[in-house]
Amino acid sequence: xxxxxxxxxxxxxxxxxxxxxxxxxxxxxxxxxxxxxxxxxxxxxxxxxxxxxxxxxxxxxxxxxxxxxxxxxxxxxxxxxxxxxxxxxxxxxxxxxxxxxxxxxxxxxxxxx
Amino acid sequence: xxxxxxxxxxxxxxxxxxxxxxxxxxxxxxxxxxxxxxxxxxxxxxxxxxxxxxxxxxxxxxxxxxxxxxxxxxxxxxxxxxxxxxxxxxxxxxxxxxxxxxxxxxxxxxxxxx
Lengths: 113, 114
Description:
heterodimer; A: about 110 residues; five-stranded mixed beta sheet; four-stranded antiparallel beta sheet; 9 strands; globular; B: about 110 residues; mainly beta
């Protein structure tokens, strides 16, 4: 079972920041937080991941709370092409089944003009 | 970087035939590859993982004799759906992961069995 909780859906106005929350209250010390998104009829696309520090790349920023029990993915200027299902996944970087990505239901983000 | 190519993207075939799907990591060596299945309006479900040169590890409920996985090199894995039936119709997605890298995915194969 997925170890994260995300809202089922969210709307965002084009050009505004999209803030997608994720709860992972049972995360363990060796588990990272990963974010992927899936645009309709495509494979998932890697966005960003982090352990405890905030991270930023060309796609998004990831803010992880100090207790690591929740995080927020921020798309700074959402466009219509960002409409997708966003998955927050916790994963260990160890080998074996602990390293598998287990997908939950994700958040369907709809960016509106 | 980190591109995974999956082929074919779409296949329709008759019930009882076998279908092979290829997954290639184009610009990295995928020490571990993954196969997922996704039914309409559902999330991705992990079917199996494989390490190069080793037998695949299948998730509970996935028939290893029906879904044959070969991971013969660090850049190629194949999934063969044997004696496919209409209930095997689904969206199949492969992924690959190199050392200390995030997992990357192909664009999926839509399989329709008539």
